[in-house]
Amino acid sequence: MLILAIDTSTKSASIALLRDSDILSEIFVNLDVNHSVVLLPALDHLLRLSRIEPDEIDLFACTIGPGSFTGLRVGASTIKGLALATGRPIAGVSTLEALAFNITGSEISVCPMLDAKKDQVYTALYRTGRDYTLEKIESERVTDVRGFLQCIDEKVIFVGDGSVKYAGLISDMLPGKSYFASGCHQHVRAAVVGLLGKKKYSEGDVLDSVTFAPVYLRASEAEMKRFSR
What is the CATH number of the domain that holds 70? Predict the structure, then answer.
């Protein structure tokens, strides 16, 4: 099975091609530029380099949120176009799960944390289960950083740009219980999205190529301003 996976949910963007569980090629960009500028050229280059045509892809996978509103829309529209043009299915992957998967195998719980601005983060809590799969032990949410940390009473390894931004606060509130992922693990990788997407597909968990929408966890600035009128 050939899998094309993309991630545009944060400041970084990546795209990967997998054959079953083998990573054939991957492009990762962390230049803080608009994903609409990066994604299609990267896709074209990756397919040319791999000598693969779009209609040879068996499954598309993408992160569906939470994360950047604009980034998620770019990713969703791109993957929808590819799926509709080829008739292939789409598997949607949680951004937080993909981020936590970077630390799978950890003996302590993993907390992916994305900066949501306004002193808030998108977060959840996972632990490694059987066969190095992830088990969610705290649901995904957008929450106040301090309030979330006050509910943690165990050793946790933190990963993601939110954990980098609030590293000092985390260390102060969880002395001796907080650990942080290395720099190379702090970003979502499309190859991981592909692996998780393959698992979802095997379980029959696929998206409607026409109607699916990203999972934002909160309203956009425009929506909040409209509702407040």
Answer: 3.30.420.40
